[in-house]
């Protein structure tokens, strides 16, 4: 900037003086045009976020609005993190996020690679794989609720296929998982956490993998893997055939081309995919609410359900707001670095 | 000929005119309507009445319509706005109502449960007006039981008109299934008797107890009924005024009994809703189900016959108590149609409306002088109980304690169903009672 201004010649300066009035009014125009959106954004996003934060610090616990600050400040947050249910929610979100992203990225990428090879009827398949994305999460939740109901759905299919008969013959018990009704938490790591983190021994929740969360992750994968596939297909379309040719000349096989060339080149797409899926999974509500609810022993409870129930059923507005603020922080932790890096690349 | 410019300007003016008249028209109409009738009497015979409820399913909607019909017969010129929000137990409606109240958009009248939900949530913040004068004018104090009135009274003023009363502590059984196993249930059932029968059934390969707790309140209700059965109505009432703590020995014993009952429940309880659990009982999938008498409607709708296909007793140990799950309406403070609303309350507190409403809703009248011939054998049994038994408030349906305790109970039950830890359960409820402001 400084070099540009010192280098500018008098001729250029006169030109800029002549057009200044026009330029100023252009800036004014821009500001005027943007003002409504800026005001709306400021009020409906930032003012309300600030309001929610204020409520989370307040005494508001009944239907009657009470915005006086609670003593000591942040007491509600302390209460929140001491709740077994909230601890379970954080665990569930973590487990769900890991499974969901692993499943969705793997499946989406696999589908994209398959379609990228122009198999017969790939147009039809591309649409079929994308269809679930067009459904509402509520619809997906209800459908998968029946599939993973222990009395109907998959277990009935196992029975009809004679699998349990077969298992009985080789001396094994019947295969009848409880799916979304199973309260079991496997791979518990409370002991390890207590050894590493001070204060962890006071956690009331069993840290591990709640089995009921996996069917929910499968349902979410079913819905979003088509979307992941579409993003990857878009990314692959930008990689020219010359790259593949070059790799082939260098003696790479089909697998190696993907493993060593295409997938590394798709890194920006992968980052976008992961960020998008992460914020979906952190905010998820409707799918879980309709499919499994809070689950046995909070095996499938998630922060968004917690917020809803604390706010509107328990009328603990301060606690619900505190949980909402924590959700915002979690999402921000994912989105802000991503936005920062994108902005950096653009400039 | 006209120029292009003239044409477009003309079109614009025409459009503007159209839009303006369109906007003006609906505003002009009600102004005219309001101007027409004069005097208070005429105002009351016209205008509108907004009734907010969550009665949308078959029998409930029909029962609400019956109330509307009785009202419209007396006030034909009042237009009733039926503001229902679908969702069991008001789970979706209450958030809407809360938002409207907080925003000052008060409905004329809305559905409410007596007890804490009424007094704590609506009376305390001043969202409703007292209706004591209606009770005096209509002589309702003589026909509405005192214990029920007490649940609607604060500082000597009554705030609600109750239309129907459900009995929460019902224990339903599949009569044929029990007969096949050589079991007959008498007029009452004690806790010990239940466990003897449950053991016998289990040995015969029959699931003793059906629970459908995909909505956890159903299991919380099993606990609430068991609690009442083990500690009795006096101690049970003491829990809500702070004179009894949740970690006292008899309360913990009730929790143990509840835990033992859960050992006899169906494996797929978490996948079923309460009505699916009743369905399972009808289909012979289990013998017993603890549920309020809204379950009765499920049996009737499925074509089952009283005392032949199915039977009922009080939940084990709760004979002599009546767990009140009642519905009523209030007068909104700042109701836009106050006069119409007062008339609405006058109508639904009356015998005619309650006799029309309750057989459809599957509940009994809140007044004790309804015509018994209009009700079947179950409801006559329930009316007997209502007239002579100890009336106690339900916590699961919002009468006994604040909403945040209700949520804390549901949360504690969600955990207890899995880990059956009595001490943790008791401590959670003690803490919740303290934080809700009624426990010590």
Considering the chains and any ligands shown, give keywords for the structure.
heterodimer; A: 347 residues; MetI-like fold; two-stranded antiparallel ribbon; 16 helices; 72% helix; disordered N terminus; B: 440 residues; D-Maltodextrin-Binding Protein, domain 2; three-stranded antiparallel sheet; 18 helices; 14 strands; 51% helix
Shape of chain A: globular
CATH architecture designation of the largest domain in chain B? 3-Layer(aba) Sandwich
Q: How large is the radius of gyration of chain B?
A: 25 Å
- What is the level-2 CATH architecture name of the largest domain in chain A? Orthogonal Bundle
- N-to-C span of chain B: 90 Å
- Rg of chain A, alpha carbons: 27 Å
How far the N terminus sits from the C terminus of chain A, by CA atoms, comes to 14 Å
Report helical residue fraction of chain A: over 70%
- CATH superfamily of the largest domain in chain B, called what? Periplasmic binding protein-like II
Poorly predicted spans of chain A? 1-8
Low-confidence stretches of chain B: 18-44
Main CATH class of the largest domain in chain A? Mainly Alpha
Q: Please estimate the helix content of chain B.
A: 40-55%
Largest sheet strand order of chain A: 1-2
Count of spatially separate domains of chain B: 2
Percent strand of chain B equals 5-15%
Question: What letter string, H or E per element, gives the SSE order of chain A?
Answer: HHHHHHHHEHEHHHHHHH
Largest sheet of chain A, in brief, is: 2 strands, antiparallel
